[in-house]
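Human: If only I could read backbone structure tokens as easily as an amino acid sequence. Take your time, and here it is.
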Amino acid sequence: MQLDPQAFLRLVETSKTLAFLDIEATGLKGDYNSVLVISVRPFGCKPISFAVTKPGDDRSVLLAAKQQLETMDAWVTYYGKGFDIPMLNTRLLRWGAPPIEKRHHIDLYYTLKSSLLTARRSQGHLLGWLKTPEQKMGVGADAWNEILSNPSATMPTMIRRCESDVKGLEALYKKTKHLIRDIKL
């Protein structure tokens, strides 16, 4: 017997074991780049953020976020199956830690790509088009360029960005969850 996806979503929402996940990193590849911030937002709660003090030194942040994510029954990401989870697991491997234990994973990028016909598929575009209260926070090139040389000055911006992304992700989920027909590990 298979559980209806909408019934499952109501269950994990009520039990606060549905989490929204986003990361900020120094780049797109886990062997050459590292994680800066990981934000986890349990459904209807404030984000929990894990941030490095020095780029490249992400071991403790990864382990803490891994522990938090493994308390959840389901995750919601936006292109998290393509970036966030593989990046986290690559960096965990770098530090000799096991990968994050799999959970039910709703990747809204793939859900909405197959359900909607929009000109653009970015989270920011969809948040704007759907007029959600939380919009995508932009970070200029100067902040990204400064993160390696002056992390103490730019890390607060990266944390705000990551927390904004999980808030926006929850808003996007609320507007589109009726389109979720399948929930995979």
